[in-house]
Structures are given as structure tokens and as C-alpha cells.
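quick one if you have a minute, typing this from the bus. theres a chain ive been looking at and ive put its sequence and its fold in C-alpha cell form underneath. please have a look and point out which stretches look like helix strand or loop to you. anything you notice is useful, everything is just below.

***
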Amino acid sequence: MEKDIPLSRSRSELMAMAAALKALDDKRRYNKLDFFVPYPKQQEFFDLGGIVRERMLRAGNQIGKSEAGAVEMTYHLTGDYPDDWFGHRFERGITAWACGESALMVRDIQQSKLFGEPGVEDSLGTGFVPRDKIVGKPSMARGITDAFDTVHVRHKSGSISTLKFKSYEQGVKKFQGKPVDVIWDDEEPEMEIYLECKARTLATKGIIYTTFTPLNGRTPLFIYMTDPAAKAQRQEVLMTFRDVPGLTQEDIDDRLAAFPAYQREARLNGVPMQGSGRVFITPEDALMEPLIKHLPPSWYKLWAIDFGINEEHKFSAVLQAWDKDNDIIHILHCFKIADQTPLQHAVPIKRIGINVPVAWPHDGNSREKGSGQALMKLYKAQGLKMHDTWATFVDGGYGTEAGIIEMDDRMKTARYKVAAHLSEWFEEYRDYHRKDGLIVRKNDDIMSSSRVGLMAKRFGAPVVLGGQKLNKGPNDGMATDAELSGRDLF
């Protein structure tokens, strides 16, 4: 017979269990940071702080960019860095700013993520900053209900960190003053404000980081932060919805449906919106495919080039293969070169596909100033198989808009594929846009070559890839028939 449990003992056990559950609930509620596990892209962003003083986390909406900003700020305020933290460290209490577009947005985003729901007294400490680290009561800002102005946080060293909230709408003068150790800009400020923020960190050798979705396009700050020549000083991390673990196809479909087509790439993938709108809106992952190294012999290969000479307008070339049976264009390779001559332009073309015909735009008939020869003949003299006439559609037209319409139609119907490793192609694809209804002729060299290739696809030929050796041998630098395999050329 089962022995009865004394009522007093049962009550005691239940009280102990209730206390344990409450303690666990309090830990989860007031020590949120202990349960944070970063996405790989968030971790990459954190680690970058140990290398450069200026960083940008560019991302879509609602995929963890502001969360990452709040987590990093919490580590710096408290000094409680994880054991595997490779980012910047402060061994003392810091002075920090959290800045956003407006006082209302700062309250609802940064303040909320750091300290908990505004206006709810019991929620103080339910953000990423643990409740027992908050010193005293936050001082309140003027003009916005429940918005904080300043919060003090206890640092691991025993000293006190001070965090102030600021908004860009206050104007640049509010960003002048004393040195600051850490500045977090959520969404991008005007360049003048950003540079003032940067100036505040110079004396402290502090850091400044920005988390944002590029809805304003390629702004001066975006260009400043993505300058390849400045990677030793500042860098960016791009986080798309594909970088968020656990998203289902249903989640993705819901996000796609939530925004108009022209905003989707910005709001989901952090791709800058441009002018009056991007020319192409097909998602990049719908275009990408692995590089096809073993091409069917029947596919029509074609080089398509766009003439250019300087940084403003570079020479570019695209290698495409047309699967005529399925009517699919495959972009296999591309490159662009500035400040070189036809001799240098021809080298990679001859190495990768010397027997592949070359399509060229109508300005190839114009005369080169130095020699007086037509441009296309200068390239033909380098051994390229230049087509006899410039690229046109079957009806003889060669208008830009007609080419764009066909490219767009093929992209939307899965009949235009691009090798996933061609970063220069995709960079131009993201930046290809209109302003006041017109194509912006900037950073569009590879797009122009791609358009030339599409309208001249019938000029291609089912030849084997391969070509001139880099080191000349007994065959005068030409590959033998056996070496024209098309393998490992890219």
C-alpha cells in the first residue's frame, strides 16, 4: 500500500519548486544576455571590432541587426565579455552613446532592446543589460514620454559606465562635446553627424558602429564605409534573411509578401535602394547557380564586350553559354579592366576561350584617336574572333530598353542564370538603377556587356573552351586540341 506523504512536506516541496521556477523565470527575465546565441553573421560583426574601429552591419529588416548592436553595447557597458570574445574590449567603465533617427525611434528600438519595455516600471532590466547592473534610476529625456536620457551601468571593474541616448533630428551641434568611448548608430545618420560622432572617439581611441537597412540607397556614408581602399580602417558585414538560422519557407514568403517588389531586396537582403528604383528586382538567389565546368558541346558560347578605358567607364567582358534546347542563358565568367589597352584586354579572353566568337556594341565602329582604326579592328588584331558587325537583335535594333526588357523577362522566368562566384556581376546588378526614369550610367560596364551578349546570342558557336597558354611553348602559346577541355579555366 502506497505510503501517504505528510501534507506539510508536500507544501514545503511545492513552495521550493515554486521558488526555483520563479528564480529561473527571473533569470530569464532579468538576465536576457545569458541566453543570447549570435548568428554567424552577428559573430563576424562582433569579431571585426578587434580589427577596425569603424564598422557597419548592413542587413534587412527584422533579422537581428539592432539586436546585435544592443548586445555589443551591453558587453562594453558591463565588461562581461564572453570567453570567446575577439572584438574590442574595455577594461573600465565607458562613456557611450546610442543614436537613432528620432527620439521616438531611439526609445522604441535601442532603449527597449537595452533596458526593456518603455513606460513599464517592472520591465526595467528585461532588455540585454541585466537588472542588477543598472545603477540608480535612469534620467528622463524631455519631450518624449518614457524616453531615457542617461543610464548608469556598473562595469565589471567596479567603475561606472554612462550611456546617453541621442537622435539625429537634434542636429549636428548636439553631437559635439566631450570624448566618447563607444557610439552605436542605429540606421544611418547624415555624413556630417557621422563624422562628428567619429571625432568624439578619436581622443579615446574608441569605436563607432552602425546597424542599418539601406533604404536611402548608396548614400555618402554607405560609399564611405564600403570603400575598398579603406579596409584597414573600416569594414562592413552584410547579413541577409538567408543568414538567419531557422527561417522556414513560409517565413520567407510572408516577408516577401509584406513589402512592394522594389523594396524587397533592401528590406530582406540589405541591398541599397536606388534612385527611382532598381532596373531588375529578381532576387539574387533565383539567378545564382554553381559554376558549370563540364559544358555540353552543343551550347552556344559567346564573349560579349563593352569598350572602355578608364575608371569612369571600364572595358568589360562577359562569357555566356546559351542552352538553345531549353532557351537558358548561363553567365560563366566576367571581368572588367581600367587604364589598359586592347592588348591587355585580350589576354584573359584568349586564355579562357580563344575560339569563342566576340560580340561588340555599335560604338566599336568609332575610330580610336591614336591609330585612326575602328575599335573592333584593334581587338581583332589581337587574335580575337570579333563578329563582322556590331551586336543587334534579329530585327536589327540594338536599343538599351529592348535589351533590358528581355533580360528582365528571362530572369523572372528562370531562363537567365549566373555563376554564384561572380561577385562583380552581382555588385553591378544590385547597383543598376534608374533616376527620373533613365538608366544611371555608372558602375554598369558588366551589365552593358551582359545586355550585348543577350541580343547577340545567335552569334555564338558550339566551340570548346580553352586557349592560349600563359607561358609560350613549342606551339607558339596555343593550346593543343586535347588541352581545349574547358576545365578549371576560371
In short: The chain has 14 helices and 18 strands. The domain at 284-483 is CATH 3.30.420.280 (Nucleotidyltransferase; domain 5). The two ends are 81 Å apart (CA to CA). Residues 470-487 have pLDDT under 50 and may be disordered.
